[in-house]
């Protein structure tokens, strides 16, 4: 993954720049008129002559300077009346705020005639070896890969593969909606998803099976208890519970049930997701437009290493259509690398490559022991 | 639109059937183990020898008999401990519950070799004249067409057309997410959507404009107040406010802001949507998978007329890809008629056909006066 | 694969039917006005009181009775003035021609409410084990699987996998267009496809590399000679040449070059393809709408075994979008089973499953020795 | 439309450049090893100290200097043994050939964080007013707009609109495949396309109707004679015949029939198409990947005006999916402007805007009288 240098703050454009200007928020959840709106790129704010990076970077938010002099990126809805919020539109440092765009957004086109220059296309080769290598390295160094999945993953029988990644320490946290857990649990109890068998047949009475699955978990009180009681015996949620991998299930208006663990308030759900995205060192977004964009909104495009250096946050977006990946990029998650394929096939081959690479390295796949001890 | 007869309950299969069996719910929000799971089709429940249709029909729910002897279709989460819930799996009346599937799901294939038999395809002609006719008839008889839209509608400049339908009495209620209102209001204030101009150009600093639009409305306190204060001067939300067309904005984890009117709790949002879907006499679902499926889940496939007769509930689903329409049908909204096109073009031509038909009938387009008086 | 019985011709509807009526063609390539237009389903023609099946069944063609009393399905353009052509529209035997549709087209819908009933969807599981099993069985019994591929297969690095299937006896014939061979040969010579590297980068000067590859083969005189001369050293075309697997490269207006082996006349190309489709016992159509539909048009939906019994002709259609598969079915190839995924991933997993199954059976993958001796 | 200046050939990089080097072709249809491979951009070749532009510019071809000293862009297959062919890889003039890429391929990205920067998306607004204006201006100045269409146009009832454009002088030439004409003529004779009615219903016996339509035209001898004989009474091909708008129907392996006018040899068909693309001043590519890319390959990205000045050749590509437009661009037709919508809707609205604009200008739509006199 590419790494990036910090700008040279000894340059005149930085030494001559003013401090950023902060203005108190006029009301709870309301920003000053000319607030600076953040991006997901490395951002430096000049405070008392020092260029500093704010905590918890994400896009579409404000820069807040707290009483202790700490700088935060904070969603407008979380700002309280009187909080000091940075104002200004310039991103070039001239108003005390610098967005380090060049490294990330740089020279796409050099004015040369070429074929095959599109960014996202099913005609591009998929480098599974590269992705497998990144995943293994993340595990080696104790990274925090965030996996975000849509329900197609479960329908199309990638359940086992997803559970394998969870069980073997490749998943820092799982972010999904109610439907992923519902289909997964229906599959565990009834061997169907929305009443469809694992060979793709619709079944008589099958339309009610997801409701029966939900009802059983509601009766048990939580997914964890449904696992304990032997109602849920395998699959994705089972793996999360058994290997103590944290998950966030966020609600939507489409939800049946929902399952007891689902956070039905969107703002509370965002806050729960963000507790994981702020720790993320990698993101894998599979077969979901809504959750992928939601996560992309919360993610910085970069990882800040312990030594302060920056590297790109590897972000893989898998979808059957180019549109979802382009849409994600159009919402600012430019760092996303698009893989245009079926989620089932993606999971199957990715696991295969990871297993081969582990074999080659003599590193066994291993139950997530460290994680379990957390 | 097709109409349907009730079954002949004098037939032996019905006269010899038992009453439906009801069992108390074991806990709040938990259904009895063998609960009957509803569909969106006309359903008859035998109570004390009488075949009756429940109130508020929808799929994925339970049948509840209340203390007053009234029958309801109710979501499992809304059932309270001790409520009497119908049990049984049979849909053929043999256990006292009959789903009138034949009329709706009938003989698709008669074993004949034909071309062009797919249900959803961009190669199918789009009958705008038919759709325009249905819309006008709904207005004539005081129907309640529910419009459900995704943000692509706003991006691609169908704003004016949507506002026209609202202003002229063709919209009973508008159901959408935060993003529709955000893009619409950004367009009103800044003439951009996500910073893209109306000719499709990305603008410098444009990435923050939706946040600025949200912030202005949050400062005003509500969309209605932002209209009153002259902040929002045109567009979809403006038309809703001015013509007193009710709208429901439901939250999602992807939301920026959100706007003050957004219902962020998914269950409260579902309840708010359902207040409109239970009145719906037509549904138009445009460029949204999430909201279309959510609405499809809540909608009966039929309208019960004042005289008790049944007709199909016209349900139009517009999307750029066949997949969304097929997915909606795969979730049980079989009555949906798919239109595979761009939302912008759909709105433009539909309005044109409605205007022509009004001209032909000598009926002027007219501000929604009756509606405004509600 | 399903097998089918012949109809019971002792039934009254057949014993009382008249002989089919034949009328001379009015001119070369022109059929009599009321000609019977064929389908791809088992068809029986009553001639002198006997119900007989014609040779070389395919859709969109005519039934011709030759001087020797043989029955043929023949494209209109190949009919000569005076040839005896069957007339009539009825497919139920009442005019002496019976299309055995029931077995194939049968009862799709039984009027029951179900989820997940769509025919083609990315949400359907993909049964690689089943497909691998069919392929191995075809090899065991000396079947003739016809593979039809589009260029995306080559772009996305499934070249090796395709070459493996060719080398190991799983390919009866390869049907493709100029582009497949061009990209494959560019990859062999320059390690790019349309100038894109195997990791997806566009290269400077890369836009001309496919032209240079074509030019080298044109200079050599044929693909086989380019292999002999060591210009083409690996890949799909190399494997065909080395293992003597026949291929047909058909021309199109989009072609660069073309390569010397390409049949540029569409009718000659159809005739060349049909020499293989009439022998086909299985069809695998990957990432091509044009060639898949072309092949579907020529293929019967069934295989006639040596003993006269019938079975469905396994037809797998792989594409990134549901649309191509639906379009193929809409053109009458109803027997096609759709796999909605990326061609690269499909090939990789299919090979993996075939290898595993061969291992499990103790049957080694083996160079196509029998084939090579042809 | 953007216009472009020629480079300043007084600059040192041009005055110091050598003449281009020409080498005789080693055999018919075979280019010298290091041939220069052309692009669709303005290209200048230094011959005897003069920078000159070749005739008939297109991509994927060679530069040939004929005996008369004329420069041509010529497909490799058309080069004869001994023809002088330019060699070299450099496009910057240093080997005597300069590709003027900057104007066309210029600075896409300036390293700034923006939303909505994707090139092709259904979320982009469609500027019908702009396209209508260009079409009218082309008609005003006697331009030569080439329309290239796929069969979806006919299926989905845009027939009338296409015929209107033909009849009113907006079509220089129509380039299509056999299927467009077949569906159009089936619609005229039987009111169906592939047996589907204009309201989208599959009909009994409908699968044979396209074959019956083809057979009638084959009996008549040509489309023009079928029009004369009253067999074809309306539609696209009828309009071409009546208004003497030239059309090229190119064959493919998928073709039924084909119709008598179809050029079945791909190379002859390319030559026929190129006679129109070399005159083109605008290109409109609708609902066809194959023909759009074929045309894109043959088209320069620019128009050379009578006075020698250059302007971009307006190229509109309409398809239901982003993929086709991106694929066209990935094959080098970078100038294409993508419209992601349904062909039927595109045609309907475009016509509407053209009619409105003609009204506004007081210019009546008018039968193509001048054209008819050609």
Question: Overview of this structure, please?
Answer:
The structure is a homotetramer of 374-residue chains. With 374 residues, chain A is α/β, with parallel strands linked by helices. Helices cover 34% and strands 18% of the residues of chain A. Chain A contains 14 helices and 18 strands. Chain A has helices spanning 12-15, 102-105, 128-140, 152-155, 159-167, 178-190, 209-220, 223-228, 236-242, 266-277, 289-298, 322-330, 343-361, 369-373; strands at 3-4, 21-24, 43-47, 50-52, 62-65, 71-74, 84-87, 97-99, 145-149, 173-177, 192-193, 196-197, 247-250, 282-286, 302-304, 310-312, 315-319, 337-340. In chain A, the strands form five sheets. Chain A has a six-stranded parallel beta sheet with strand order 13-10-9-14-17-18, sandwiched between helices. In chain A, helix 5 runs parallel beside helix 9 (236-242) and helix 6 packs across helix 7 (209-220). Chain A is globular and about 70 Å long. Chain A starts with a strand and ends with a helix. Mean pLDDT of chain A is 93; it is low at 370-374. Chains in contact: A-B, A-C, A-D, B-C, B-D, C-D. Chains A and B meet through helix 7, helix 10 and helix 11 of A and helix 7, helix 10 and helix 11 of B.
């Amino acid at each position: 993954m590419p790494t990036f240098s910090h700008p040279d703050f000894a340059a005149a454009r930085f030494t001559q720049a003013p401090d950023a200007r902060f203005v108190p928020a006029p009301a709870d959840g309301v920003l000053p008129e000319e607030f600076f709106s953040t991006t997901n790129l490395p951002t430096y704010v000049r405070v008392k002559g020092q260029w500093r990076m704010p905590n918890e970077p994400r896009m579409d938010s404000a820069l807040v300077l707290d009483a202790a002099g700490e700088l935060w990126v904070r969603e407008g809805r979380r700002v309280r009346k009187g909080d000091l919020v940075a104002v200004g539109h310039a991103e070039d440092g001239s108003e005390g705020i610098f967005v380090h765009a060049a490294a990330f957004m740089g020279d796409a086109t050099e004015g040369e005639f070429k074929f095959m220059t599109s960014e996202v296309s099913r005609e591009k080769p998929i480098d599974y070896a590269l992705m497998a290598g990144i995943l293994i390295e993340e595990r080696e160094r104790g990274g925090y890969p965030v996996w975000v999945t849509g329900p197609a993953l479960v329908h199309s029988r990638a359940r086992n593969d997803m559970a394998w990644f969870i069980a073997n320490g490749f998943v820092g946290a799982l972010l999904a909606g109610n439907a992923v857990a519902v289909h997964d649990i229906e599959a565990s109890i009834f061997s169907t998803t929305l009443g469809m068998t694992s060979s793709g047949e619709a079944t008589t009475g099958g339309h009610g099976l997801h409701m029966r699955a939900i009802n059983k978990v509601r009766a048990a009180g939580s997914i964890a208890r449904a696992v304990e009681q032997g109602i849920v015996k395998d699959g994705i949620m089972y793996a999360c519970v058994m290997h103590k991998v944290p998950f966030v299930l966020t609600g939507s208006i489409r939800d049946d049930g929902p399952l007891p663990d689902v956070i039905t308030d969107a703002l509370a759900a965002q806050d729960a997701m963000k507790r994981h995205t702020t720790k993320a060192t990698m993101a894998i977004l599979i077969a979901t437009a809504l959750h992928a964009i939601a996560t992309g909104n919360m993610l910085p495009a970069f990882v800040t290493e312990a030594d302060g250096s920056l590297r790109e946050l590897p972000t893989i977006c898998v979808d059957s259509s180019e549109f979802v990946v382009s849409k994600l990029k159009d919402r600012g998650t430019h760092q996303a690398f698009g893989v245009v394929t079926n989620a089932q096939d993606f999971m199957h081959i990715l696991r295969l490559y990871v297993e081969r690479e582990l074999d080659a390295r003599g590193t066994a796949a291993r139950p997530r022991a460290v994680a379990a001890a957390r």
